[in-house]
Specification:
Number of helices: 13
Distance between the termini: 29 Å
Largest sheet: 6 strands, parallel
Order of helices and strands: EHEEHEHHEHHEHHEEHHHEHEEH
Strand order of the largest sheet: 3-2-1-4-5-6
Strand content: 5-15%
């Protein structure tokens, strides 16, 4: 494995980011910034975070460098503040108030660097009755109404891994927030705190649905709407080999093409007649069940019927379109999504594999001019113990 050196190419080349190590949305947000060219220094804790995967395979730590700092040690906070003094952005994912008790909260950091953008990644946010409570993705999206939208109406809501809350409602909103605040800081010389809460971001993702609900175009129940599986020509169907095809033939011309290739042209009038939808669904399901996924993929190949095979994680990188685009890449023996999005003038890529905890200490101390990182860390002072670090 190779460690990232100085910032690589990309639109964020020259931007310095400090990431206080955590799990889930914070590391993913920092990875995205690193993928785009930022020089990301991850501050790992001794022993590593809970729930972490093997550091050699944790691709959310690619394109970063790592130093180890014990924030419970007397000189631990000073080491982080030295980094913050030279950074553009700092990201932390502690519960509200924990960073302050550890001596690396916004006030302490801004005293050293008034231009710093201080990004806070939590599930519940910095204020509110639940702000101090523990939680994970599934609880956050449950309260926003988005989890209740997903899945078969006859079964409990389907769990969308942790993609909807942690990464879509959390990481991506944190990245948007810190980059917007960075633009402001560069224009005014003044940094600020970005409060990125998964509940806020996930709720924001449902803006269009709330508009449809207000307009009477969406029913507030699962599996009864155009985009939630309630519509027979927008959903998934099992094939003869136990696999699945995905259908999204919403527009009239796509719907007609879908019916033609599926072999049920007589159902043209069912598109807007919801009373015919149950029968349409049965016919579509029966047709898909008559052939394998590979056979149906060949039938719809090259058409505008908006039908695609449902692939597994291991299958996806081998799809011809994704392979042609390089949507996935292999680096140091690990197949992983390539950086996204793409830029015409400032291309991005994977410069290094997952940062090993502490392996970048010497380089960061030199490149960021933080010699304190090279000094032996003072042991924890039992007379003045620091409060424990809490999970998100």
């Amino acid at each position: 494995m190779t460690e990232a050196k100085t910032p690589g190419p990309g639109p964020l080349a020259g931007v310095r980011v400090v990431e206080l190590a955590g799990i889930g949305p914070g590391p993913f947000a920092a990875m995205l910034l690193a993928d785009l060219g930022a020089d990301v220094v991850r501050v790992d804790r001794p022993g590593g975070p809970g729930l972490a995967v093997d550091p050699a395979r944790d691709v959310t730590n690619r394109n970063k460098r790592s130093v180890i700092v014990d924030l419970k040690a007397p000189d631990g906070p000073a080491r982080v503040l030295d980094l913050a003094a030279r950074a553009d952005i700092l990201i932390e994912g502690y519960r509200p108030g924990v960073a302050e008790r550890l001596g690396v909260g916004p006030e302490a950091c801004h005293a050293r660097n008034p231009r710093l953008v201080y990004g806070r990644m939590t599930g519940w946010g910095q204020q509110g009755p639940l702000a101090d409570r523990a939680g994970h993705d599934i609880a956050y999206i449950a309260l926003t109404g988005t989890l209740g939208m997903i899945g078969d109406p006859e079964r409990p809501p389907a769990v969308p891994a942790n993609l909807l809350g942690d990464y879509a409602g959390g990481s991506l909103y944190l990245v948007v927030g810190v980059l917007a605040a960075l633009n402001h800081a560069r224009a005014t010389g003044t940094g600020q705190v970005v409060d990125a809460a998964i509940v806020d971001g996930t709720a924001h993702l449902s803006a269009m649905i709330h508009g449809m609900l207000a307009a009477g175009a969406w029913q507030d129940r699962r599996g009864a709407n155009l985009l939630d599986g309630g519509c027979p020509y927008y959903g998934t169907y099992a094939t003869a080999d136990g696999k699945h095809m995905a259908v999204g033939a919403l527009e009239p011309q796509f719907y007609d093409e879908f019916l033609r290739l599926l072999g049920i042209d007589d159902q043209a009038g069912a598109r807007t007649d919801v009373t015919r939808w149950p029968d349409l669904r049965e016919q579509v399901a029966a047709r898909f069940k008559s052939r394998t996924r590979e056979e149906w993929t060949a039938v719809f190949e090259g058409s505008d019927a908006c039908v695609a095979p449902v692939l597994s994680l291991r299958e996806a990188p081998h799809h011809p379109h994704l392979a042609a685009r390089g949507t996935f890449t292999d680096h140091d023996g690990i197949t992983q999504p390539a950086p996204a999005p793409r830029f015409s003038a400032t291309p991005v890529g994977i410069r290094s594999g997952p940062a090993r905890p502490g392996a970048g200490t010497a380089e960061v101390a030199r490149d960021w001019d933080v010699p304190r990182l090279l000094r032996p860390q003072a042991p924890d002072d039992p007379q003045h113990p620091q409060p424990p670090r809490n999970p998100q």
